[in-house]
Amino acid sequence: MFKNIKSDLPASIVVFFVALPLCLGIALASGAPLFSGLISGIVGGIIVGVLSGSKIGVSGPAAGLAAIVLTAIATLGSYENFLVAVVLGGVIQLLFGVLRAGIIGYYFPSSVIKGMLTGIGIIIILKQIPHFFGYDKAFTLFKVNGESTVAQFLNIFDHIQLGSTIVGLIGLAILLLWDKVLSKKGKIFQIIQGPLVAVVVGIIFFIITQSSGTLTIAQSHLVSVPVPEDITTFFGQFSLPNFSAISNPDVWIVAFTIALVASLETLLCVEATDKLDPHKNVTPTNRELLAQGTGNIISGMIGGLPITQVIVRSSANIQSGGRSKMSAIIHGFLLLISVMIIPKLLNMIPLSVLAAILLIVGYKLAKPALFKKMYDLGWKQWVPFNVTVFGIVFIDLLYGIGLGLAVGIIVILIKSYQNSHFLHIEDKSNGVQKMKMTLAEEVTFFNKGAILKELDRLPENSFLELDVRKTRFLDNDIIEILEDFAFKSKERNIDIKLISERGIVENPDSYIEFFKLRPKSA
Questions:
Q1: In angstroms, how far is the first alpha carbon of the chain from the final one?
Q2: What is the DSSP string of 498-519?
Q3: Contacts of 53 (CB under 8 A, 6+ apart)
Q4: Burial class (CB in 10 A: 0-12, 13-18, 19+), 158
Q5: Which helix (H) or strand (E) segment is 427 a member of?
Q6: What CA–CA distance (Å, rounded) separates 23 from 30?
Q7: Does residue 288 sit in helix, strand or coil?
Q8: Helix or strand run (H / E) with residue 308
């Protein structure tokens, strides 16, 4: 494990610099105690890092779960009640791993997954706009106390805190400069990441303007993590779940939502990380679910946010030369040390700087270019994508995913309907119209409508060549349709030639008897 320490140690420092502001920022976006983001970062680094089979994946609090956490805390009434859902979500993830459900991600259409991430990105942006301007009232897309969306947005500008806004703009400029220009100029700008620089500048700004009056940033607009006096008070600041809420059905709904979305996000990140890995290591997905489930149980038990493997930290680890899981584990210990040693420094970070970091995170999840790309792929990608996005933004995440998945299934059914067979119409010969129908490799009851419609449209006094040589599976529903058509074809004077791997049959009397004699695979 320590043989790659020369590569893993520098990479772990980079990942720590990326993770620290993100842990705080995601907790802010989630409406949770800021300390909870650090707890989940520590657990994700140390516990999940040890148990995971991924060599370069890094786990921690995920922006993709921020919308769920924000809604769930309000629904369940307290953060302690929410922690019960996190623990149960971890148990469900363990069950997923035991049941070898690591392939679950492959059963969600990519349009729905992209829609989920885009919707989450939009929600993050909307929730961070007020914090960016030093205004702590939540912004929604609905009327609140008779106040429309536009009125809520304009109201932000009546409550702008000058100091918060200026340092937020400075932080945003630093992040954009780092991302677009400096990161390509030299390795030093890849080791020292933009979010860390933005946070350091934010702390310096706060110190300089502390007594300026106009630009002073109020305590309510700064990070607030507990400052322990000793090791006893440090451990005393961890929150414990309120297990008396376990009988609340809403807790179980939130738990299942966390388990499903966290597992999906993890599996998608695993796939993306393995593709980025220059050494092409393959992560065992079922083991990853077991590791994530264990991490979420521990995180929930001590007051942390839900955990997933995250692409931002994982890609930073890869780009910095991380070779083994030691880089993720060491970054977790660095987070733990920072919480114990420099909490007073953390409490000087303006929330508007964290909001600037999250605005960039949200934008990267919901890039306008992605909407164009999905549109260019055609309506079968565009419709499920947009249904998922709007469902998440205007209802909630679970409903949005459910609606997107339902539309995705309808699209699959339509495609299946269209692709069951190929009909070729030949020229008339001796007054008889000749047609050839070739059935697909697999024909199921989904294809009943298309085939039935095609057979009913065949003209009287015609000739049909039915080719099933490529068909490996033929549903009984389709065989029954062909059986009925054998009777109708005689009334309509349609001659049929059935071509199979066993030979040619002219005007078969019974398709049921014929297909009973075929090999089981057909």
A1: 51
A2: EEETTEEEES-S-HHHHHHTS-
A3: 283, 284, 287, 288, 291
A4: exposed
A5: strand 421-429
A6: 11
A7: helix
A8: strand 307-309
Q: Show the tokens assigned to 437.
A: 């129908």
Q: What is the Cα–Cα distance from 487 to 16, expressed in whole angstroms?
A: 74
Cβ atoms of residues 32 and 43 within 8 Å: no
Instruction: Provide CB contacts within 8 A for 372, sequence distance 6+.
Output: none
Amino acid of residue 302: I
233 C-beta neighbours (distance < 10 Å), count: 11
The residue among 52, 26, 60 whose CA lies nearest residue 332 is 60
Alpha helix positions (H), 157-221: 162-180, 188-191, 194-208
List the chain pLDDT tens, one digit each, 522 residues. Answer: 567 787 788 788 778 877 888 888 889 888 898 889 999 999 999 999 999 999 889 999 987 788 889 989 999 999 999 999 999 999 999 999 999 888 776 667 878 878 877 887 888 788 888 888 887 665 655 545 555 556 666 677 767 888 889 999 999 999 899 888 887 777 777 667 787 788 899 999 999 988 777 888 888 888 777 787 777 777 777 889 999 999 999 999 999 999 988 998 888 778 777 877 787 788 888 999 999 999 999 999 999 999 999 877 887 788 767 888 899 999 999 999 888 888 888 888 888 888 888 788 788 878 899 999 999 988 888 999 999 999 888 887 768 888 988 998 888 777 665 555 555 566 555 667 888 888 877 787 777 777 888 888 888 888 888 888 888 788 788 888 888 888 888 888 888 888 887 778 887 777 777 776 554 444
Global pTM reads 0.69
- The Cα 30–Cα 34 span in angstroms is 9
Could you tell me if 499 and 466 are in contact, meaning their C-beta atoms sit under 8 angstroms apart?
A: yes
Q: Which three-class secondary structure state does DSSP give residue 181?
A: coil
CA-based nearest residue to 42, from 347, 337, 265: 337
Tokens encoding 19: 């993770």
Q: Take residue 220 and report the two structure tokens written for it.
A: 């309510």
User: Residue 233: CA atoms inside 13 Å, Cβ hemisphere, count?
Assistant: 8
- Integer Cα distance of 103 and 285 in angstroms: 8
Q: How far is CA 120 from CA 224, 231, 391, in A?
A: 25, 37, 11
Q: Would you say 306 and 62 are in contact if contact means Cβ atoms under 8 Å apart?
A: yes
The answer to whether 482 and 513 are in contact (CB under 8 A) is: no
Q: Which residue has the tokens 């493997």?
A: 309
Residue with tokens 């939502």: 257
Instruction: List beta partners, residue 433.
Output: 428, 462
For every residue of 21-47, DSSP letters joined together read HHHHHHHHHHTS-HHHHHHHHHHHHHH
